[in-house]
Amino acid sequence: MLDFLCLRGAPAFDKNIGVDIGPLAQVNFFFGANGSGKTTISRALSNYQCFEGTSLVWNSVNRVLGIKVYNRDYVDATLTPAGHLPGVFVLGEENAEIRGEIDSLSGPQGSLENAKQSITRFQSSLKQKLSDIDAIRSILREAAWAKRNEVPLPFKEMFNGYNNNKERLLDQVLEVSALNQTCVEDFESLLPEASVLLSEEAEPLLEIPLSPEIKMQDLPGYSLLGVAVIGSSDVSLASLIEKIGNSDWIREGRQHFEKAEGFCPFCQQAAPSDLNELLEAYFDRTYTEQMSQLANLSNEFTTWKQKLYLFLDSIPERPGVFDFKNSDSFTNAKNELVLVVDEILVQINNKITHPSSIVTLANPSLQLESINTLIATANLEIKRLNLLFNDRLAAKQSLFDRCWNVFVRMILVEELNRFEGALPGHLKGKDQIEAKISDLSLEISAGESRLRYLKSKVSSSGPTIERINRLLTSVGFHSFELASSPKIPDGYVLVRSNGDIATETLSEGERTFIAFLYFAQSLEGSPKDEFEPNDLLAVIDDPISSLDSDILYSVSTIIRRVMQDLAAGKGRVRQLVLLTHNAHFHNQVAYKMASGPQMGSWNFGIIRKRIGHSSEIVLSKDNTVRTAYVALWNEVKLSSEQPSNNAVGLQNMMRRILETYFNVLGGIDNQAIVAKFEGEDQIICRSLLSWVNAGSHSIFDDLDFTQTESSVESNLRVFRQIFKEQQQEGHYTMMMGEPNDAISAG
Q1: Most confident stretch, 187-196, 277-286, 369-378, 437-446
Q2: Distance, CA of 194 to chain centre
Q3: Residues 579, 30 contacting (CB under 8 angstroms)
Q4: Cα–Cα–Cα angle for 49, 50, 51, nearest 5°?
Q5: What is the 8-class DSSP label of residue 247?
Q6: Which of 358, 306, 312, 360 is CA-nearest to residue 335?
Q7: How many angstroms separate the CA atoms of 189 and 322, rounded?
Q8: In this model, does residue 343 exceed pLDDT 50?
């Protein structure tokens, strides 16, 4: 059913704030003066899009009703100058077998209704399943949202476009997870590319030069390392020095000879006079040149060492795989090289200190090769990054794709594993439910198609023509009638007795009444349009405008029959909205009997027209629009004085008085009152108490009547006698305005 009409931008009501009309019940009565906004409400229900911002809120999306509206617009659209109306179809009496199949399809317990109820249950299950899926998605969504903070700062740009939309972030995570089942990278390994591609200040990288080379065998004095450097063998001391092997000791002691003052610096005895000449001869020019070569060897190697160390220290610090200064491989290679270089220099200096010693130097080429290999590898990476830099846009997108994979498969790995473990079962259940809904939808479609075919076999517009014409005659419309249309198959046309089309010559009251009868029949008949829903929300706006009081009762009876069918679950109407400005008609329709058929759940609304302000609506469960009890007596009094007036509505007024006074107030059962009478008077008494409840299912069948003045007088006589038999004639005379002595006279 319709729960709320959210009216916005409509005349009569506040165009900015609007008004929410609801919650609505099965039957909803709205009473308001002309100009208060009743027609605005009916037009909004006919087409809510006619007022911008207006919407309809249904209490179940699975039970959205079709809406049929009777108002001035409906009258004008229905009674066109052409005068031809589409047919309203009801089932004929023939072909019981087809009617039985129709009932089995469309009845309250028919297969179509059962299938619709099953779809409703499955849709409820689907809604729950979708809720479960959304809960699983929500966990991953919130985790992804929170774990953005775990992504290193250089990569934050990957979230541009996702930082303000959790659902979009989740969709991206799921898309990436579907494309990538594993990940072999991490954010640290992507830092080199980030430094080149994601920094606005980034420039192409310079390659790292190779380390300074050195060829040990080409250095001066290198060949002396493998031989003993000693003095001349021609000196007499040479044999002794060579025998003892203390050439290096003699060379060191010679430096102290001049300070010894004639003493031998070696034995501290008086030195021979030619000792100095002998030492000079021993350490001759050859020896001096060899020592000079060893000194040059030390100097050149030291110079290369300093250059090498400066080179190692000058390698630029760059992030990623070629950050030598912070990599274990570079540190180990550097330490090994430094160790070898320092050891070589120590050995060279030892050779200079002990020229006669034999020295074998290590070769640093292996360590240098290790360093250069690392540099070459780094340079390959630099070249790759520089190529990316040259095609920065595409490379940046590729980098972000890999960043998303790292985020999804590394940062969100635990949450994603739980998600991927739980989701398939729910998706399978969802697919199964949707498949069942699809099968049932096909079943309903096939059933409705079959139903339309069956109805085409047994449907007829004839009963509608007959019923409407009978009612027109019973309430005094003799100048026109409904006939089969010669232009619209199974349609109608309004004609005068001479055969002329009557549409353009109808009075306002005639137009109103015939349009209402056509509308009422369309609520009961089968829809000719296959797209029109079977279940309806009926909206009736002022159906008694320009109608006489006797026709007012006929209209109210038709509406109350619709209400009875609605409460019983019969017919097509599932919800009713009635709008009127006539208090008497309002209470005729909204009268709740103490016994008899019930009318479903009711709401009452007052539409208040406020001077200088927008109209307002007040809803209540109680009817605050009441025709006074005394007003009913006034109508009876008028009929007593002028029997030709108000003849049609008189019996119902008397019945309401009797039920109010004796049944509701006095607690006297109808049968107890009827038992007081005999013969014809008993029949009249019973008709007074049960007349409005008579009739068959059709909303028209019980309206085939014609009141006469004599029947009015008989009803009035029995009406008075009822009060007399119950010793309540005093109340009768008081309400009828008769003198007190009329009691004994009666």
Answers
A1: 437-446
A2: 37
A3: yes
A4: 85
A5: H
A6: 312
A7: 11
A8: yes
- What percentage of the chain exceeds 70 in pLDDT? 71
pLDDT digits (tens, 9 = 90+) for 286-300: 777 778 888 888 898
CB burial of residue 571 (10 Å; 0-12, 13-18, 19+): buried
Strongest mean pLDDT among 109-113, 427-431, 697-701, 734-738: 427-431
Instruction: In whole angstroms, give the CA distance from residue 617 to residue 19.
Output: 8
DSSP state of 587: H
Mean pLDDT value across residues 154-166:
88
- Evaluate if residue 511 carries a pLDDT over 50: yes
Amino acid code (one letter) for 576 = L
- Rounded Cα distance between 203 and 389, Å, is 8
Chain centroid offset of residue 272 CA: 117
The DSSP element (H or E) to which 655 belongs, if any, is helix 647-658
**CA distance between the termini of the chain:** 55
Provide CB contacts within 8 A for 489, sequence distance 6+.
87
419 φ, ψ (degrees, to nearest 5): -60, -50
Chain-centre distance for alpha carbon 206: 53
Whole-number pLDDT of residue 667? 53
Q: Are 384 and 139 in contact (CB under 8 A)?
A: no
Q: 166-179 vs 392-406: helix axis angle to the nearest 10?
A: 90
Q: Is pLDDT above 50 for 92? A: no
The rounded mean pLDDT for the chain is 76
Which of 176-190, 335-349, 691-705 shows the lowest mean pLDDT across its residues? 691-705
Long-range interactions of 506-512: CB distance < 8 A, separation 24+:
506/79, 506/480, 507/546, 508/545, 508/546, 509/546, 509/547, 509/548, 509/551, 510/477, 510/479, 510/480, 511/75, 511/79, 512/75, 512/543, 512/544, 512/545, 512/546, 512/547
Two structure tokens written together for 420: 């991927």
**Angle (deg, nearest 10), helices 549-568 and 508-524:** 10
Angle at alpha carbon of residue 594, lines to 591 and 595, rounded to 5°: 110
Distance CA 647, CA 635 (A): 10
The residue count of the chain comes to 746
The model scores a pTM over 0.85: no
For 55, the enclosing helix (H) or strand (E) is strand 55-58
Res 247 pLDDT > 60: no
Yes or no: say if 123 and 438 are a contact pair by the CB < 8 Å rule: no
Give me the pLDDT at residue 54, please. Answer: 87
Give the C-alpha separation, 11 to 27, whole Å: 25
